[in-house]
Fold this protein.
Amino acid sequence: MLGRYTTGPAEREISRLRRNTPGSRVAYPRAMPDHIDLRSDTVTRPTPEMRRAMAEAEVGDDVFGDDPTVNALQERAAELTGKQAGLFVASGTMGNLVAHMAHVPRGGEIIAAAESHLILDEAGGHAVVSGATAWPVPAGSDGSMDLDDIRAAIRDPGDPHQPITSLVMLENTHSMSMGQPLSAAYTSAVAAVAHEHGIALHVDGARFFNAVVALGTPAHELLADADSATFCLSKGLACPVGSVVVGSKDFIWRARRARKLVGGGMRQVGVLAAAGLVALRDGPAGMIERLAEDHVNARRLAEGLAGLPGITGLDPARVVTNYVLFSVRPRPGQAPLDARTAFLAEWRARGVDPIEYSHGQVRALTHYGIEASHVEQALVAAGQALEAAGLAPIRA
Ligand SMILES: Cc1ncc(COP(=O)(O)O)c(C=O)c1O
């Protein structure tokens, strides 16, 4: 079996804990299961440090606003992003939902990238709960929507036929473009277009800190002109649960009411927020800086994959965060999806677990728990899988 996780940072920390705690029953589970799980960065397990912080968290009733650990997390998130306030929510989807509930009136409209999480993967929450329509604008291969396309999508508020454009959304990093980070200059340019029309800008930053690290731009600069943002703790930052919404005090007050409405008011939730506080620490004590390792591993994975006969549609130079998307080249007469199915079955049989993605692609994400050695093992397995699936000539 390939890829047993015996040497990762979490395992080393667990061994240290066991050594230094005589007779203790400390037995944290492994950072990852016994295979190379590249399906998503959501599969990460909390670090030993997070588990300790969670066990020891001071808590209170957060619906009354008196959970000190949640309050500290919200303040830390606001400080990092340069916003007035933060709100801890259960998920990225809930973060985006309460953000549009706070920004958009019923009958309002949201401009968002056509292939964005909001439009494809949030169960139509903007329509079902907020009563808003969405106007999808195509995004380019760099993840950005053209400013003129955004301008053209803004409705005429004087025309009673039209919904009222009330929010522009950016996804940073942008998943469909293979995790491209959107720069501070671009974000500010979009904000300027929105603000000219009195419209707010919200950033869906499920992987916002991957953008921060890839661009080398501090979080507060990247969001300088955005009105609000959601970022996830439960993806590359390796927390078990949660996201934070940030913005002005007024906006966060409306988002807090919206969170209550959707049943997201939680009580002694400092036990979850404690992991987030660990993740958002500065330097190597936190989980932000570490994302650079995921980016290096993703680039190496992409370079190796792109060099294999049978892999197509992958330019490794475009891999700048933790996202790798690629296709497999079918045999003559073979349907592309059949080729993908055959390849995935063989790769999985060798202990590597990627996931099917839009446009017939395969997605592999790097994250905490995936180390350089796992990438090399995954590449060897990919070469073997292509041969076994009949998609590459068998090497002597
Ligand atoms: C771009 C983007 N936004 C939002 C979300 C939603 O996050 P969650 O799964 O925590 O609801 C995701 C999840 O993968 C995402 O990729």
Notes: Residues 91-93, 117, 171, 175, 204, 206, 232, 234, 243 surround pyridoxal-5'-phosphate (CB under 6 Å). Residues 1-26 have pLDDT under 50 and may be disordered.
